[in-house]
Design brief:
By secondary structure, the chain is an alpha/beta fold. The protein has 16 helices and 21 strands. A hairpin with a 2-residue loop joins strand 6 and strand 7. The protein is globular and about 75 Å long. 52% of the residues are buried.
Length: 565
Amino acid sequence: MTSTVPNAVEHADEQQPPITMFGPDFPYAYDDFLAHPAGLGQIPATGHGTEVAVIGGGLSGIVAAYELMKMGLKPVVYEADEIGGRLRTVGFEGCDPELTAEMGAMRFPPSSTALQHYIDLVGLETRPFPNPLAETTPSTVVDLKGESHYAETVDDLPQVYRDVAAAWNKCLDEGADFSDMNRAMRERDVPRIREIWAKLVEKLDNQTFYGFLCDSEAFRSFRHREIFGQVGFGTGGWDTDFPNSILEILRVVYTEADDHHRGIVGGSQQLPVRLWEREPEKIVHWAYGTSLAKLHENGEPKPAVTRLHRTTGNRITVTDADGDIRTYQAAIFTAQSWMLLSKIACDDSLFPIDHWTAIERTHYMESSKLFVPVDRPFWLDKDEDTGRDVMSMTLTDRMTRGTYLLDDGPDKPAVICLSYTWCDDSLKWLPLSAHERMEVMLKSLGEIYPKVDIRKHIIGNPVTVSWENEPYFMGAFKANLPGHYRYQRRLFTHFVQDRLPADKRGIFLAGDDISWTAGWAEGAVQTALNAVWGVMHHFGGATDTTNPGPGDVYDAIAPVELPED
């Protein structure tokens, strides 16, 4: 894919190894772990059938529960809303059920190799996602300061955009050793990855994304920084990320997480739902034909958790919204971390105090979307005067910011994501209803496309989400601020509990915001697998010697530890 501002340097050698989200903080090969015929490990037979609480039915919780079930444990999943979490696919009332909108995750990079394992496992198909200037995106319009530029490739844009692309490439190589790190990650050269990253963490932990750009001679031009923020690279503008730690951005570009995206045909929520219903071919203790759904009464997870506390014997006691109280030897918490501070009554003794501090300091990004169903992909019609598409994937500094055009063929109903925004841009929509949002969006797009009557093609009511206003999320995804590396390290490494006091063990953190790559479903999967290893270890189990798990090799690849004083 060619992005608006190419994702770092172009590689001449097309035969090089494919990239994966392999580090840089914890360079462990989760895809190899999943693919190994020995499996993820086993627990002693005396533990078979033991219940383990899994709090949160998003992707991380369902992956963890599925793998624990295969080991012979009995996951008890608690979910406050519906299975899927931020993999949320919705339909449009009164429209063809095949018309869907992705309210959360909607595009996935090939570097998400552990995620892809589960996509393949449940038989889902993917197809290229129409990002700006992607090879399969018919056209893109960049509209800044009232001036629009139509492009089918990046070469169609004015020279200033290519200057910004070159500045970004130079900034990455000079300030973050991009070429060396990208090569090391492709080759899975763990010593080299750790060597490069250790220096960068120490150097850049206190630096913002914007400060990193300003420190580069390549970005001495404010105009270039402004264009970069509004148009960005890969998926669009990144100015909403400017206050965040540059380390967050480097994790994305090193792994090409913001490029070559694919969407899941039929919607991403199918992945956790299919895992919930899937009957594994290889399973311990349970009869063939067992699924997570069959292990739960009426095939439904238990309701929201309202209280978590420790009881005698370092057990974890869970109270749910129905008033049911159950006690477990182990539990995995995969819901958004702030839930532990607000929606769930918790004992301080659940976690060490420095972990509570890290949870409290978690910084979330806001995010809003609005979709409308339309009668057909009219944007592929040609303008009689110019011969161009009448409407294009659109990046703009207007209220809509990013508009995506999604179709399944020329003669079928289609969907427009009229606006996808983050942070301050998302907060601007918060007080408005779905129809009020739509009216503002149609006005903005009408100024870019004065010849196009979008409204006449709309065939149903809009659907919208503001993740900061969702009661069980309070934000879209974690994004560390400068100085937050130490907090993230505490949360990610929590699954290795041998060094914790005995009265602080048994509950394991997992989920998107525990990972180093929040905002990407891959991080949810990786932390789920960490927690599975933690629970297995807690029950006295072990991995096969030919397939060591993330905890087995932890000491050799542990994340960089910065001084606390």
